[in-house]
Amino acid sequence: MSPDPTAGPTTDLITVVLVDDHAMFRRGVRAELEAAGAGVVRVLAEAADVDEAVRAVAAHAPDVVLLDVHLPGGGGVEVMRRSNAPGTRFLALSVSDAAEDVIGTIRGGARGYVTKTITGPELVAAIKRVSEGDAVFSPRLAGFVLDAFAGSIELAAVDEDLDRLTEREREVMRLIARGYAYKEVAKELFISIKTVETHMSSVLRKLQLSSRHELTRWASDRRLL
Amino acid sequence: MSPDPTAGPTTDLITVVLVDDHAMFRRGVRAELEAAGAGVVRVLAEAADVDEAVRAVAAHAPDVVLLDVHLPGGGGVEVMRRSNAPGTRFLALSVSDAAEDVIGTIRGGARGYVTKTITGPELVAAIKRVSEGDAVFSPRLAGFVLDAFAGSIELAAVDEDLDRLTEREREVMRLIARGYAYKEVAKELFISIKTVETHMSSVLRKLQLSSRHELTRWASDRRLL
DNA sequence: GCGAGGATCAGGGGCGTCCCCGATGGTGGG
DNA sequence: CCCACCATCGGGGACGCCCCTGATCCTCGC
Fold it and tell me: How many degrees, rounded to 5, is the angle at CA B41 between CA B38 and CA B45?
């Protein structure tokens, strides 16, 4: 929004490391940044895979890393996981606009995510904003992130499985996933332990799980708790 | 970033409902929007509490609701919860920059969060971006949201408990929390089931938990998996 | 009416979980 | 040297989890 002098250097050049496995694409981005970002952005180094990227980040401690999501050696998330760079912010730059890529990358610690359809000036603006501490998303992607954060995402995907459960089964499932023992579920729902067992049996079968532990993780992954 | 014709009206006026319990502040915002946002933003209605806000949103179906976080009758989150307005986006406008307010509001479904230190032109720009589907945060706040989302919060608090575990106990704990049975942990670590039981006993005691289910949730909440 | 499916419950069995008791060996500090 | 702590293991027991078979009652739709 407005320059924030506490969040990053706005007077000096913003230093950038560029990570992408396609040399041609790196060349293009670099050219765009040198054209549209002259006087604003400076590319310190490039990297073509995870190992190179980690080394480059460690060596140059850039303000911003432009990070491809799909990358030989583990993907962009792996780069962030293996990099210990407090002053560095990661901006994902990917062809993918799939929700799982976006969300996974944000979970991994990226401060923004833009698609490769972006233009040079827009990319420069995005880098600038990320370096100032702002979060940047292509408009189309912002919804994914906030929806996921609000816990309302992938309900569509879940529903295929979840809809096959009856109302009562869902109640039992919710309590079990939250760590209730069968006995406690029974008391909570005013039914016998045996009925709880019957419902759980159905739940596990319908969700293709084999134990309450898997159920806990399943529900936790989908934020159903 | 760039106008996205699929995400919202950019040619017409962006319609706004203004929710704040202070008439003086509403008046000020309205004046700013009419000055800086002339030809861009149009305020359809104002509301001073949750009930009024819900009614105003339902009646006018605005593009954007400028929403105070602390509000008589339940707060801004309550307004979003009770409003069924698919085409409407909520932009929180608050004095508070507390992490819990920001995160709670985003969880509640807001598409952005700016503080009242914002200037008129910045607010107009924020409204415009939100109406286009983008996410807007004051730079200082973006960090909260993404940190919370990446789950890197409260790691400091964990260490106090976690440090009391021995190395071996941590290994066992990690596997158990991931859903391994005692038998599987034993095989994985080349020790007997009995040793696994001993370690688990220590882990549960030290973490003040009473079952592996609680441990799973404990670790899951802290993203130690 | 009759079958399908949902909700309720029982008995019994195999195995997992968690605890109690105990034991041995290693390691490091007072 | 002894004590504290750790890692390793065992027996045995109470209870929880999950499955199986089998049952009753209800509702809904054909």
Answer: 115
